[in-house]
Amino acid sequence: MPDQDNKCTCSEQPLVPIIVEVIDIIDRTPDIKSFFVKNIDGNGVPFQVVPGQCAMVSLLPVGEAMISCTWQKEQEYLEFAIKRVGLMTDELHQIEVGQKIGVRGPYGNGFPVDACKGRDMVFIAGGIGLAPLRSFIKYCFKHRADYGKITILYGSRSKADLCFKEELFDLWPKEPNTEVFVTIDNAEAEWDGHVGFVPSYLEEVNPSSNGAIAVVCGPPIMIKFVLKSLEKMGYNDDQVITTLEMRMKCGIGKCGRCNIGSEFICLDGPVYYLKQLRDLPPEW
Amino acid sequence: MKVLSKAKLEAALNKLNDQNEVFVPMQKGPQSGYFTWKSFENGQDELMLDALNVYQSPKNVVLPQTEKMYSIKSQGVEVNIDKTYEDAHPTIIFGARGCDVKGIIAMDDVFLTRGYEDSFYKARRSANTIIANACYEPGANCFCNAMDVNSLDPIGADVILRDAGDGYVWEVKSAKGEAVTALIAELLEEKEAKLPEAKPFTKKVDYTGVAAKLKGMFEHPLWDKLSEPCINCGMCTYVCPSCYCFDIQVKMWGDQGYRFRAWDSCMFEEYSREAGGGNPRGASKERFRQRFLHKLEFFQERYGTPLCTGCGRCIIVCPTDVNIVRIIDAVKEAEINA
Amino acid sequence: MKEITNKIQTIAARLFAEGKIDVFLAWEKGELDFQNKSYVARNAEDVKNIVFNEYSISNVSNSLLKFRDSHERIGIAVKGCDSRGIIRLLEDLQIKRDRLYIVGIPCPGMKDPLAAARNYGGFSKKQEEDGLAKKCLECIQPNPVIYDELVGPEQSPRQQGDRFAKVKAIESMSADERYKFWEDTFSTCIRCYACRQVCVACDCRTCIFDEMKPQWVGRENSTSDNMMYHLVKHAHMAGRCIECGECERVCPVNIPLMLLNRKLIKDVGTLFGGPEAGMQYVEGSKPPLSVYRENDPDSFL
After folding, report:
1. Most buried in the list A167, B68, B186, B308, measured by CB within 10 Å?
2. pTM given for the model
3. Does residue A9 register a pLDDT over 80?
């Protein structure tokens, strides 16, 4: 149970967003776009994030949503990869570069980047789930010597739905001691890569569980099956990390709705070791 | 002892009302709740300080049902937040029972600790003074004593009133209490008063061990039976002095508007409904279970005290006779298969 | 009433024994004398918990909605108002007639367990009267209008005088007076949605007030949003409300909801004629506002 009582780090008014400018928008897939934000005066980013942390992104006249920050490039920008699923994200996908939006954060506990030093890392993601893991993956590559072998296993519905294609096919496979495996659900023309779901591909690839840490993110159903596979492959509960997801409104552990048991996913999570999850009610 | 004679009560309320917005328990026409003393209409309304309690709790004073947060002005690509609506006008809750005081103290834990201070709640709460009304005769549905509340000496009250017949013993408990006492100092008399005898609780509730036991009962079959009558209306959460869950929404007219927050309820279906359509608590039973686990287990785990304050309001208003006391009893009796 | 309880229990036991039903919906006693809640008996063992007494006021037909997607055969005990609720659900195609075995109870009038609970709770300084519930004193249909078996003697309606007297009183106010009346009334609403949840006619899978894309009525507890909620909800009741009075009974802030419902009943009756909602079951029939006829009145458009 978290016990911190430290003063708020982001602002005196944690529910009021900071206005930032969208300086770039890149289409990643038919329904995922990356939004790059920076302070309005062009000077730096509104706050620092550690890998795995999130922010409440708001299109002010419409609403807010909790989005994980997929990468912070020093003081140049914060990047959010956002999928179009609901009221706010629908409208957000229609904005253009130069639009001012709101952000507040950083929220959440982030990935245990220090505790994982020296370990072999196995990143398993599905669909938009690659976005939060990307922050950890890029962190590992930035501090390459601190981590062992890196395996990245990613799957999506179709070739068009593969997110961050440049990293997957061009940049990451070139990194030292790194293997990237990509799969799509169903065969299609112009794809001669692997076809199949992530959990079964994972068992095929079978990255060694010896001293490794597996980090999993994706649709809840994928996570469930991947966890089963990891168990079969010999990963202990303290070798598996995942991120949980619930509907969020306040982002600071007050409005009550994102709880699983007595944990608030926005504040105490969203990153959890499987060992911790065993202690929580099975609502995830 | 300082005593405020009942003959001088109205004068005292008027005096306090000069510099504060005073909320008193009132029967206002068909409504029963905490309303402003300023709105009291002689002949139509009735002051309920000598009644057990009123149906709506005073949580509205620090966590209003609807509260504006900040203004939004949006033109083209520009968007501005011109003002935020923290409201720190001084308020007094006059005559709150121990169960209601506990509700607010529990909300202080939620809104003012754990790394973030909710600026809107903080503004209202810092400017708020609680004058409690010690409770000497528990009602038929009262069980605050089992839920960590001392109805004779509620923690968190700035002043405690004790009904001694002709007048109220006025017991100052804090610096805030001193400040409001100073406002009516000349109305108080220094004399002895006979305190009433504290009557026993008729409802016997034993909460010990319930939180710990519930930890292993998430999947227990008793939730099926207990949740069957519940129609998920949300009345229990709205009359509860300690339910605090809220929603944040936006209201726009053209390019201007504001973001506001409003009471929400875990009983409502869209409470946990995600944008993609998934809903971890879509079934009535899941929401029912969430409410009672929150009240009886999760809050205890997180903040060290149960969230249910034993006021008994939900028991009276529930149209399908769901009763938190019977749920506590059922949990105590339940067998857990290893 | 003990006799009726026994009769219902006997019938339920018989239906279970003959394998004709999977569940039986009725009432069961709560802990205290005046407490009563809806009950689902799932086998012959459970039958002994079924009770019908003067506090069995809740609308059992509301529980049918829990079973709309499954296939159980359902035995159900209903009073006059509840039986109109069953017809409401049949007309709305929420449940099929052949799944139901309806035990009809001509109702002698019920007392309000919520009033008794308030008296017992001790919050009020005045005790509420111990007579029949307000909605029962205004009852026009105590006898079930649809049933497979009837238990108990026929009862007479209890509505005295002009059923629409209070509605007419409001109608005779000036427009400004009327607006003030409703504005004052709705400003007290706490948007707990109890009226929606107890209502049998509220059988939409996703209620319009729960929709977010778009959001039709905001969550704000302002007079305008409150008015929108009530006016839209009751407009959805026009021609469908079965006048069971549960909404008004459960309202924690005593909003006179039946005034709105009766106004609509009066107007729909005047404009469209025909039998009132839920008074008779004719297969394939629809509420007047669900049917388009070329000569429908349209002077109000």
Report:
1. B308
2. 0.91
3. no
